[in-house]
User: Fold these one by one.
Assistant:
Number 1:
Amino acid sequence: MSENPPRTELMGSSEFTNHHLGRTLEVRNLVKSFKVGSESFGKAERIKAVDDVSLFVPAGTTMGLVGESGSGKSTIARLICRLLEPDSGQVLVDGDEVTAGTKIPKGYARKVQIVFQDPTASLNPRWKVRRLVAEGIRVHGLRSRSETKERVAELVSLVGLPEHALDRYPHEFSGGQRQRIAIARALAVEPEVLVLDEPVSALDVSVQAQILVLLQELQAASGLTYLLIAHDLAVVERFCDEVAVIESGRIVEAGDPEIIHSRPEHPYTKALVEAHPVPDPHERTMYVHAQDKAEVAE
Amino acid sequence: MTKFVLKRLAHTVIVLLGVSVMVFFLIRYLPGDPLDVLFTQGSGDEVTAADDLAEGRRRFAEGIGMVGSLPSQYLNFLSEIVQGDLGTSIFRRIPVSTLIATTLPLTLQLAIAGQIVNILLSLPLGIVGALKQNSIWDRGGTAFALIGTAMPNFWQGIMLILIFAVWWPILPVSGVMDLGLSVEHITGIPIVDAFVTGNWPAFWSIIRHLILPAITLGASASLVRILRSSLLEVKHQDFMDAYRARGLRERSVTSHMMRNALPTTVVIFGIRLGAIIGGSVVVETVFAYQGMGWLLINAINQRDYPLIQGIVLTFTVFTVLANLLSDIVHGWLDPRVKVEAKT
């Protein structure tokens, strides 16, 4: 936390401030397996995508979840948002339990929101920004019609988009702007926890930083709790209070991002750190695929 | 939008020009000359002298513009079309435009009935297939559509006639309506005219005659696979999960899925619509349904040049217009297309 860049207080004067503080997010022994192959060919087997994962994210902080593609990190995001049903385990938001098999508590979707990786795919192309952002408010009956209109305009300016953006379609924006729309849409239902599923991976490097800064500013202003999923340790290191490294559905290492980056203990983490390109050519080592590296180390 | 439509209409003219060149020259290079049939020794009632025959043939050819070089004949043909004259049928001695005007409504009636069958079959099969992907319903629906597409129309038509008109005679074999019945001419489309004038015996007869050819045209359920795959494409987009994450009930999510899959399906339906009107040629022939397709086959057999030209151009106009219409509807359903058309 101390190493994070100073958070600007741009939104300090906004109405947004502190009117809904973030809550703790806790995941206990989450398990999810998928059937692979087809039964008719007699090859069906189950693969554990998430294998006994536990996480605790204190209110108003950011937990990074890092792993290669296929490591199960996106499955965890979907399990937390109940887009998938876990085989077993618990998800708790502010003490509200969402246990496998039980009915989802009412209003859960309001508490936990998700921002997807690719804003091109996550925004309905047939809707204008105004409707996209207002949808959540309408579904949960949060505000009256006129209040909704005001709120939507407020959210759009909060994420740094001009007012005329409201009457445009998603395809009229750049990737970074679209991700801003997706963030505004997630914030519209006044969530306490925001699951960020690789929110900058689909964006240009120059735009990545802008979106991360926006997310930091929003957190500073509102105290939201973040679970940031990434495959890039460098993104996580700058942004998170704590980092968990996931490999094949299991958390292999967790702790302070600085320490994990400078002194990784688990061979998989070491491989991840080394796989990241080094800007200085003199310090660069030969690129080896993270998985191979991990095997060699073992 | 107006600019877009005007631009497309200009394209239509170019397409028509190309088609007219092809049809005009190709049919004339086919072996067989219609005038040989008309002016051959012994073809008339009286035996005519060879000189008289040659003279008659020359005068006839002059009368229908079949003299001079082919390119100059083509230019004459073009200038007549521009004046709205498609020529006169060589064998029927009736203006081509009159023949088209009487047969086109029947073809439209049949094509629309076929598409109603297609949509009634495709909608449930496609939607269930996408919602319950890989279920027994999905596999069954896809298999049905595949079999329907794989079976040739003429064979399907003959089988239907065999089953429902011969072995188990509950439906008529062929024709538009029972002999002895007639409808007043109002719109030209018999089923509409019978309905408007309250001519119920004719109305039911027309419907009974439509059933088998309409099934033959529509039972391929050609939309099933398009509808299913465009629904599945939308189904796996992140914004469907975004709706769920926002707390929308599954029913609303499904309705959003349908609305987003609609543009693709409508466009492909529109593109096919033109082809379907052309595709009715085979079905009309099998069922002796006296529409434009049936007329075309007759005209080709007789090498009735003006009639072939007129019908082929009419089919072309319908295909191009169906494409234009589906593009306009696409722009109206999908905001991303509208902007592209503007710029």
Number 2:
Amino acid sequence: MTALPPGDALLLAVILFSTGLAGILIRRNLLFMLMSIDIMLNAAALVFIAAGAKWHDATGQVMFLMILALAATETAAGLAIILRLHARGRPSLDADTGNLLRG
Amino acid sequence: MTELLLPLTVLAPLAAAVILFLSAGRLPARQAGPLATAAVGLSAIISTLLAVIVLSAPPSAPIRITLWNWMTLPGFPAEIAFALDPLSLLMILIVTIVGFLIHLYAIRYMQNDPDTARFFGSMTLFVAAMLVLVLSSDLLCLFIGWEGVGLCSWLLIGFWYTDPANTAAARKAFLITRTGDAALLCGLLLLATRTGTLRIDTLLQAVTSGQIPPAPLTAVALLLLTGALAKSAQIPFQSWLPDAMAGPTPTSALIHAATMVTAGIYLIARLHVLFAATPAVMTLMAVIGTLTLLMAACNALVQTDLKRILAWSTVSQLGYMFLALGTGIWQAALFHLMTHAFFKALLFLTAGAIIERVRHERNIFHMGGLLRATPGLAAAFLTGAAALAGLPLITAGFYSKELILSSVWQATFPVGGGLALSGHVLWSLALAGAFLTTLYIFRCFFIVFSGPPQTEISGTTPRLMTIPLACLSLLSLLGGIVEMPDTLAPVHLFTRMLDPSHPLPHTSDPAWLLLAGALTPIAGLALAWTLWGSANPVIREAPVPTPGAHRVLTARTVESRWRPGIVPDALFLRPLRILNRIGRYDLPDRLSDSISRALCRASTLAAQTRTSLIAHLSSRTLRITREGSLLLGRMQNGRVRWYAAWIATGLCATLAAAMLA
């Protein structure tokens, strides 16, 4: 199996990150925003993997595992917030309706 | 032992001043007076201890203590250092003992004032500044005390600051003495550039060894003399002292007796070696002193305000001291300074007690007949008046004035170019001044204490106020026996103590000189009795004010009051009138007026500029803040996506900056 060249891996990571960022900025649906965050995290993780592959270092893969755990907790917390919103009588997935913190 | 005690003399009043100023409003008013009095009393006890130590075993050299280095300059030592020699010992004794008695008196005098803490704080600071002035062994350090004394006089003259007249008087005193301070500072700087030091002993050595050429030395002497004249209210700076009566009476007593005006005398006595090297300046000093003593005595003769009479008499007595300094007998000047401190403090404190008893009436023509109602105060005032007049044998003033007069008779005053002013001229003028002194002070005494009563007399004088009066009376009577003319008894304790190596020559005084000095006050007393005192006095009514509020007493009043007298018009009145006019319309007075007006205008202008500038700045700040807050507030819209966008933008910007840099 030929390894993905680092340059290509970085390019892929940039594309993934931009997709995720665009998703966060454009979509108003909370579920899609959570998914976009996951995509961005995966982009970061991909950079770690690529770097680890390039320098033959296992640290990159360790960092990937940590990011995986982080993504899982983040998704869990995000979904829990959405469920709590439902439980408190705000059955909306629109992120822009929750702007109580406006200045 | 002495090294420890000497700084403590200054520290005690200084600490009290700091405590009183910091605790103003928190310390009960009842405690402020005793605290200040205790501090000055402690200082007096330490001074007495020092006197005992020094006099029992006279040290060969002055005791010097360097407290700390003020600043380090290449080739110029500036240190805070004290020195104790007989001269400064005498001064600290006068300042602390008379100051203590005045403080003791002020406890009761000021007890109903709402601002007791501020008053006593200023008073103790005054004493501390004066002690620094007389103790410092370095002219730069002396200047600190000199300025401190000026500041405190300003604080105290304008103590009742709600009355604009009082603040005007305070400002006048401050500005006029400040003129002299500027001259003094110039003199000091000139000295420093010439000798590279301001340490007094090194400086005087440099002068005696002829290190300074005569022209700069004369300039220095003139500048220092100007400073001393302004501080001691001599011609042409005399006008601030009578106005300084605006302050509370204990303040007047302190300014006139123990602190402030004696500073000029002390400065010249301290630097007498320097002045001895410039005979022309000495002559000038003597002439100014003589003119001042005559002018002030004439002014005192026509005043109606009790405190003003005493103020002019101080100016006059300071004139005697300057005459003595100009003659070169600085010991006599200090002797007169000491006795004057006693009797002038006594007179002022008695006057304060009298004024309080007659419901704050200060016009002597509205008093009268107080002898029966207040025999104690009358006795105290009589003692002070007798000492001021120098009634022979029984009063301290006689011995000190006699010492000055007899020395002036024998002296000659070089004018320059081989000419010299004979001492006989100044002696006769000074004798005339002594006659006038007796006349005006007994005029005051007879008008206040004899004749029909004119006012209601209320209350009693509290015990705490009579004790200082009794002490000062005793000192006024007996303070003179430490120095006597040879004709009476060969007692020269005072001059021996001050300067053991150079005793004053008394031996050649003819006896009639002493007799003249003794008879003049008696003649003055007799005339005063005829004019104002006897059962049907020649003059009983107040002088008539001429139009113009501030020219209450001009030459015409003198004339009308002198008409029934025996003195020919042209011989006596013309010079008096001219002197009187000098006293009234003097240049520094005008100058200080115009300066204060200009200052007032400038400060108004500055205030306006400041106000408009601040208004502009504040409105600008307000607008920027408001708009900025709106802008920033719009950013906080509570929408998560916007925040994310901001974060992304910031990230991009940071990255871009990092890349481009």
